[in-house]
Amino acid sequence: MITSAELQELLTSIRNNYGYDFTEYAEASAARRVQHYMRTNRVNSIQELSKSLLTDENAFAQFVLEFTVNVTEMFRDPTFYKSLRENVLKHLATYPVIKIWIAGCSTGEEVYSTAILLKEEGLLDRSVIYATDINQRALQTAKDGIYRMDLMKAYTSNYQKAGGKNSFSDYYTAKYDSAMVDKSLKQNVVFSIHNLAVDSSFNEFQLILCRNVLIYFNQKLQNRVINLFYDSLSPFGFLALGSKESLLFSDKQKEFTDIDKREKIYRKKIKPATKT
Fold first, then answer.
1. Contacts 24+ apart (CB under 8 A), 257-262
2. Alpha carbons 133 and 137: distance in angstroms, whole number
3. What residue stretch is flagged as signal peptide (predicted)?
4. 182 and 193 Cβ atoms separated by less than 8 Å
5. Helices 46-55 and 57-68, interaxial angle, to 10°?
6. Least confident of 69-78, 108-117, 235-244
7. Of 11, 148, 212, 228, which sits most exposed with the smallest number of CB within 10 A?
């Protein structure tokens, strides 16, 4: 076990040395991830870990990979994607250009799930998806768009439950034990490094998806990120969070309208103009 003080000292040292700020991550989650890294890499003490990470950039790169990667799959939580199709895309269709930010895109499964929805609704050609993550290796996997073939059965089931209109196999090519996503799903995607803990807004979006990421942050960082998303949304833009996340403790809670409470889809309100 590592103490709270030891954990904060390690995360502060990482921030000062590399600029990666994990100090506002939820403590219990951060501690579990650090301890998991120590077990799998046979590191015996927090002191040994600190020395390794601060003197060996390769070890630190591996640490970031294991510390930040999130479990994901295509069309995870199918009812969410069904709601997105039915309640959000019809509004996005009114824009000449649709800009979407998938924050914390991990290895890309959510990116391609969203691209498939847009394609089936005839919106992909005039959409730009900005897919960002702090984890460079996960981001490279997302760019490659190559996944294990043995996962496709579960992904196909998710797709069908999400109201898929075609055969899921239309969207990938099987090669040996891998499945490569169709090139058409990549054409309008921009992959980029972005750290939600410290980086600022970089565009205006009609839809932001950040699902199952905020659960790893403490309340202070969650609030910062929600404010970042609010500032990044266009008038009446949509925000989608994960099933265990909400706006409940955010100071922007009253600035959003519930579109689907169960699926955590919200729409930005517009403040009335003040009279002069």
1. 259/87, 259/88, 260/83, 260/87, 262/79, 262/83
2. 10
3. none
4. no
5. 120
6. 69-78
7. 148
C-alpha–C-alpha distance, residues 265 and 239, integer Å = 6
**What does residue 28 show for φ and ψ, rounded to 5 degrees?**
-60, -45
In the numeric block, the tokens 């790893």 are attached to: 216
Residue 139 and residue 41 share a domain: no
Could you tell me where the DSSP H helices lie in the chain? 4-18, 27-40, 46-55, 57-68, 78-87, 89-92, 109-120, 136-144, 152-161, 219-232
What are the φ/ψ torsions at residue 66 (nearest 5 degrees)? -75, -30
Cβ partners under 8 Å of residue 215, min gap 6? 26, 29, 242, 244, 245
Query: Do 132 and 166 lie in a common domain?
Result: yes
Structural domain range at position 166? 78-268
β-strands 189-193, 233-241 pairing:
unpaired
